[in-house]
Design goal:
- The chain starts with a strand and ends with a strand.
- The protein is an alpha/beta fold and 71 residues long.
- It has two helices and four strands.
């Protein structure tokens, strides 16, 4: 199976991202809370292909083409 692009909206502290990131080509975490983005940044720091953004997002204005969408 080829690695996929993942968009994780309301990603929280990155627990799901930690499990899925090793299998992704690119992983984008978005959450509105700076506190949980900081926790996710610490948790996911070992993954160079994971990007974290503090923002509000919906599937209709998602910032990248995606193969998998997690909400």
């Amino acid at each position: 199976v080829e690695p996929l692009d993942v968009l994780d909206i309301a990603s929280g502290d990155g627990l799901m991202a930690e499990m899925l990131a090793p299998h992704a080509r690119r992983y984008l975490c978005i959450d509105a809370s700076p506190k949980v983005i900081a926790a996710a940044r610490e948790r996911l720091s070992k993954y160079a292909h994971v990007e974290l953004r503090e923002a509000t997002c919906t599937p209709s204005n998602a910032p990248m083409p995606r193969s998998i969408l997690c909400c």
